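fyi for ur records
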Amino acid sequence: MVFNDALAIARATGDEWISGRALHKMGVLLLARSKNEEAKEHLSQALSIFRRIEDGLAQVKVLFHLGHAHRALCQYTEAEECLNKALAHWNDFGHEETAVGAWYLLGEVQKARSKFDEAEKSYSRALQLGINLDDDLEIANAYYALGDVYRFQGKLEDAARILKTASATFESIGEDLGHAGCLHALGDTQSKWARFGESHQSLSQALEIYRRLGNDSGQAAVLGEIGDIHLEQSRLGEAEESYIQALDLYGGAGDDLGRASILYGLGQLHLERCKYSEAESYIAEALDLYTVGEDEVGRTNAFLSLGQLRRGQGRFAEAKTWISKASWMAAEIGYETGMREAGVFLDQILEVETAAIKSLASSSDQNHPPEPSIDSKG
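which gave:
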């Protein structure tokens, strides 16, 4: 490899700048090959060298790619730290073309950590830079990302409007993968709006593109969404078929958070069938994956489902514990849908408990009728 040869020569001659540059380039190449752990090691070594020789611009560029590596390894705290450090110094060097990618990547990391308000700001910065650069691809990426954030925030009308703009932009520049992703997100938004016909049309178009591209993760995600729609319409057999197909595809793609979403769907499906043991097994497995992947929205939804499950079993104290955890977490991350659903579930449990208390009191009154009054004149 050319970079290995350059590194060997640089080390032999003591040229640290060449050593750092070779390590940086090797790290970027390893990232492209999804060898993320090796990439992180090479980039960390490059960063140490550039810090030692006080090359500020080189440090910023390496921090950007190191943020990529940490994000690929689901090390979101470290990724956010690297990207914030890079962006803090980017203005010093006037590299807008790279800064737009850094703002976008920072938004992706913040979204993965369910920090939606911060992600919205980062994507908005990326969008403005894309407009300044007249770069249609960066503009489309930023619109897509903003639409995705609005979905999670429950701003469905804004999400649908922006996703349609992003989808049209991706299609106009022939960017199939971005186009498919937008159609998928739009289908999800439409299903949340209960516009199932429109949703199915958007998702079918996305699935067709992903199949043409041979993208297993994309196909799996769309099939999972179609399963969710079937579940919403109580078509449980069709929902299960879609989920199983998606799970098989995710197995080959190595996407743990994707698998978690399908396992969660299967848990919901078995809840509908009142098969509580199977439901708990699927939801617990999904919760483990959400926790490892730091997906706070996923964890919130899993807590809510476990609360529903315990409610179905008549174990109301445990149900309230799970739902209260979900309510607290949803409030922490600004997850409006989660807060709303937790409030509804807690109200339902309270109604059941109140009705049970009234029924018990009524039964007690019937079993112990009042003593007859005594006529003092009698």
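The radius of gyration is 27 Å. thats all i got for now
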